[in-house]
Amino acid sequence: MLRALQIVFGSLVVAFLILPIIAILPLAFTSSVFLTYPIPSYSLRWFEELVTADVWRLSIINSLIVGGGATLLSTVLGTLAALGLRGNALPLAGLLRTLFLLPMVVPAVVLGVGMQIFLVRLGLASTYPGVIIAHAVLCVPFVVVSVSAALQGIDPAVEKAAMSLGAPPITVFRRVTLPLAVPGVVSGAVFAFATSLDEVVITLFVAGPNQRTLARQMFSSIRENISPTVAAAALLLIVGTLCLAALAALLRRREKPAVA
Amino acid sequence: MSRASVRDRSRAFALVAPLILFLALFFVWPLWTMVTASVVDDAVTKVLPRTAAAMADWDGSDLPPPAVHGALAEDLRTVQDQQALGEAVRRLNSAVSGFRTLLTRTVTAAREASDPATLDLSTIDPRWSEPRFWRAIKEAVPPYTDRNLLAALDLRRDAGGSIVAEEPGAAANRIIMLRTFVIAGSVTLACAAIGLPYAMLAAAASGVMRALLLLAVLLPLWTSLLVRTAAWFILLQQEGLINRALAALGLIDAPLPLIFNRLGVIIAMTHVLLPFMVLPIYSVLIAVPRNLMPAAASLGAGPIRAFWRVLLPLAMPGLMSGCLLVFMVAIGYYITPALVGGANDQMISSVIAFYALGTANWGMAGALGLILLAVTLLLYLVYGRLSRSPQLPGA
């Protein structure tokens, strides 16, 4: 009796979690202009719309530009910081770690208002550098967490062994520490890119019409006149993020052996 | 301190410094800008410095002494920055309408006057003999104001300067804040009601079953928030999948109203935030020795008693951090209520976005943002204390 209840409850929750995401995928292939089931016939017209209509095509390009820029910026800064935090050579390391995580905690709208006023004063509002910087702020926590975890997994004995064999610190870092940390850096970059790809709220505040990202375009499309293009874009995002997540998971698995 | 450790320390600092600098410049400073935007009110005092000084001795009752007239005429005559003047006019006009025409006329007259210091302004425009215009200037002259912060809490200062409650008709912010807490609280409760048994199930399962149950939680976490909200938007529609399915099963005759209302917002937000509840509880429960429940049973406790006295107390830290996390994230939500909710389901973030994007009223946006920021940081502080690590799950 209890067992049956458990199975029913478990399946219901799994369905609640998974089905909504799966349910919208076939709608991307509908030939109708309505987002409803049953699907009359299948076509690729909404994907065609996605790559040919200017607003959608430009928004995909913008997402790649902004995501690429924000990923590069946050990965460089976050990796350096994670290396600096390693080994607790710094006073107040705990406080710094908390500061680096805060962009994840502060409500997006609050940061958005601050960013908007600030970037307008700097003259960076509605420019690519402004949007990239704003996205990078949000991406930094993911890089710091990911690289820190990878560094934590490195056995200090490996580095000590290299040093005892006569390698100077810079060589140890270049030949031992860095290669072992690379999976963490890559998975941090993947998380950063996924975060930027999905970001809407900050973009709403700091981007102009020329920096409209895919997520931002989806947001206004759902709001104003929803069409199956949104489902096609959603499919693109799901496939994209799942590929990225699989890549990150693969790298995390590969970094496991380094954990002593 | 040895020389090596000094070197280690300076190298570590050099590595951390770029990110500290970056976040100080593009994270802390913007937030500080927002906070100051809510209290700084220097548009008028920048343009009318002499008037501000001359008004210091005037108590605000009746009309100001002639010296103030002269100071105002002098200020207006010498103003160079047209944009600053425009901002000052806008600020005054929002307090008492009519200032726009009044000041434009006065600026022209002051520029033409041969001796502005002795000018009687009421000869230029009769409105200068009304105390309310002068009082508006006096109120706008201090460079800092608590007006926005008070307004964010539905309070204002009356003519005498004491803090009073806003009239019920004009008061909306407290209702929005209460609504934000009610929605966030409902979502937290729904997440706890589903998440606790689910986490128990996942922790008790093993092998493929456990992996499957966890994958079901992680998959939505990896999927774009916007995609999940779009999915609910499509599912909950009048002609959406849920209504179609219920009608096909013969459970309903007419479509249920699921979208643009509170129910839709709570369903969609529960879906989005459920992983944040399951993961902390799960991480606490897998550390519980597996033989505890059989031990409780062997001591004569029924399943319910064993749950109440053994498992729940052990799961409590996870449940508490899960609840805090869900509540903390939920109160700042914008996208889901904006897309799935109706006009009466908008939370504090929507109001902030309205002030900032819709009306460019950064003072009010900043004041409400400050309140949301303070509540969120307070919850995060408690969360950090409770879970020992400041990291959020899923990162």
From TrEMBL, chain A:
PROSITE patterns: ABC_TM1. The chain crosses the membrane at residues 12-39, 59-83, 95-119, 131-151, 172-194, 230-251. It is a multi-pass membrane protein. The keyword Protein biosynthesis does not apply. It is found in: Cell inner membrane; Cell membrane. The keyword Transport applies. Keywords: Cell inner membrane, Cell membrane, Membrane, Transmembrane, Transmembrane helix, Transport. Residues 60-248 form the ABC transmembrane type-1 domain. Its main location: membrane. It holds the Pfam family BPD_transp_1. Belongs to the binding-protein-dependent transport system permease family. PANTHER family: INNER MEMBRANE ABC TRANSPORTER PERMEASE PROTEIN YDCV. This is ABC-type spermidine/putrescine transport system, permease component II.
Automatic annotation (TrEMBL), chain B:
Its main location: membrane. It is a multi-pass membrane protein. It comes from the Bacteria. Keywords: Cell membrane, Membrane, Transmembrane, Transmembrane helix, Transport. Residues 177-383 form the ABC transmembrane type-1 domain. One of its GO terms (cellular component) is plasma membrane. The keyword Transcription regulation does not apply. It is found in: Cell membrane. The keyword Amino-acid biosynthesis does not apply. GO terms for biological process: transmembrane transport. This is ABC transporter permease.
